[in-house]
Amino acid sequence: MAICTFLGKYILYLFNLLCLISSVGILSIAFIINQKLYKWSNFISTDFITTPQILLAIGVGLLIISIIGLCGVLRDIGWLLTLFSVLLTIVLIGELILSGFVYQMRNEIKDYALNQMNHTISGYNKTGYEASTQTWNLIQSDIECCGIYGPEDWKLVTPNKLPTSCCYAIPLDGFCTETESYKDGCFKKFESILQENSEIIIWTAIGFALVQLFAVFLACCRKCSLHKEYETV
Fold it and tell me: Which cysteines share a disulfide bond (predicted)?
């Protein structure tokens, strides 16, 4: 019995460490995605923009909860283990809700991005469209694309030349032409990046939630074990 109690305690300790490591992982992933999406905010709905920020909040919460759990395990404090279990369950539910929200939003995010591209391309380099012009330049140079579906999309906007961000090599005369431009359209590449980031958020949330679920189970078992030990004494 003593061996089982000892093993149970230190298995829970290891899972608390996993939760601590996972909180750092969540924070890192959320920060990277947030930095990437913020630059393209004109093409992304505000609902999806806030998703990495919610993930950051979950990561911070999980970090604090993991420290509470470690203190409860190492010092065998029953009420800390109970608090750890309750708070971790709340975070776990939040992660599952977030993953479901992102999964449902995927098609809406894609449609919103396409609508924004169609709406803003005609205002490129015009007064009142400074923010969207900057976003177009950033996205074309960052992911090496040109126009919505290809360089031909710019013919009605800038008939004699393409935006310099469309080209991988600018001639000495400073004019970007279709010869030097990226051939892929931005929407297809942008859609692929959004899909990739959505899947990262979904599987990160689900994967860490499973680890946390087992940690809650172990914490409850340890709490019951402590209660029995106190009754025996």
Answer: 146-166
Q: Is the sign of the CA dihedral 136, 118, 189, 59 positive or negative?
A: positive
8 Å CB contact between 172 and 180? no
Tell me how many degrees the CA angle 117-122-127 measures, rounded to the nearest 5.
Answer: 110
Is the pTM of the predicted complex or chain greater than 0.85?
no
Q: Which helix (H) or strand (E) holds 55?
A: helix 46-75
Where along the chain do its domains lie? 1-75, 95-223
Q: Whole-angstrom Cα distance, residue 120 to residue 154?
A: 12
Amino acid at 197: N
51-78 per-position pLDDT tens digit:
788 888 888 888 888 888 888 777 777 7
Cα–Cα distance measured from residue 99 to residue 96, given in angstroms and rounded to the nearest whole number? 5
What's domain 95-223's architecture? Answer: Orthogonal Bundle (1.10)
- Taking CA atoms, 180 is separated from 5, 134, 164, 168, in Å, by 69, 21, 10, 6
